[in-house]
């Protein structure tokens, strides 16, 4: 059985300094051949809105969060978005970047139970 890691992403555009590291860790874990899923909820879901991550910079003069997102996707990290969170922000699946799977809150608990490591 492959070791699974679940990263729950709650930070969004209002806290840019918190937005790059979860993607960096997800990419690193995928490169180490872990099965990595990120679950986006609360304001983390906003980073999945088309065009949003390109405007969020964790460090002045640094890379936008969109670069970290692309690195994670390229490494095979799976992205899941909480349906309640998308409703909170008036987002539809069409508003989100490609590759995002919509799941309910109960799915997060199942993913957590199935994971070797869980981090926020």
Supply the CATH architecture.
3-Layer(aba) Sandwich
Would you identify the CATH H-level superfamily? DsrEFH-like
Total count of helical runs of at least 4 residues: 4
CATH domain class: Alpha Beta
Q: What's the CATH topology name?
A: Hypothetical Protein Ychn, Chain: A
- Low-confidence sequence ranges: none
Global mean pLDDT: 94
**Structural class of the secondary elements?**
alpha/beta
For the largest sheet, list the strands in their spatial order.
4-3-2-1-5
Query: How large a portion of the residues is in β-strands, by DSSP E?
Result: 15-25%
Q: C-alpha Rg, in Å? A: 13 Å
CA-based shape: globular
Reading the helices and strands in chain order gives EHEHEHEHE
Main β-sheet: number of strands, strand sense, barrel status? Answer: 5 strands, parallel
Total number of β-strand segments?
5
What is the total domain count?
A: 1
- Termini, distance in Å? 23 Å
Report on this model:
The protein is α/β, with parallel strands linked by helices. It has a single domain, classed as DsrEFH-like (Hypothetical Protein Ychn, Chain: A, 3-Layer(aba) Sandwich), CATH 3.40.1260. Helix content is 32%, strand content 20%. It is built from 4 helices and 5 strands; from the N terminus they run E-H-E-H-E-H-E-H-E. Helix 2 links the parallel strand 2 and strand 3 (78-82). The chain is globular, with a radius of gyration of 13 Å. The relative contact order is 0.24.
């Amino acid at each position: 059985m492959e070791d699974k890691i679940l990263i729950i992403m709650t930070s969004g555009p209002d806290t840019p300094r918190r937005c790059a590291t979860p993607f960096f860790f997800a990419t690193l874990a995928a490169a180490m051949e872990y099965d990595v899923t990120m679950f986006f909820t609360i304001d983390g879901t906003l980073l999945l809105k088309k065009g949003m991550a390109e405007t969020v910079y964790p460090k002045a003069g640094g890379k936008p969060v969109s670069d970290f997102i692309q690195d994670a996707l390229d490494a095979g990290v799976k992205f899941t978005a909480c349906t309640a969170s998308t409703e909170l922000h008036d987002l539809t699946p069409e508003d989100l970047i490609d590759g995002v799977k919509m799941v309910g809150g109960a799915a997060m608990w199942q993913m957590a139970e199935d994971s070797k490591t869980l981090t926020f």
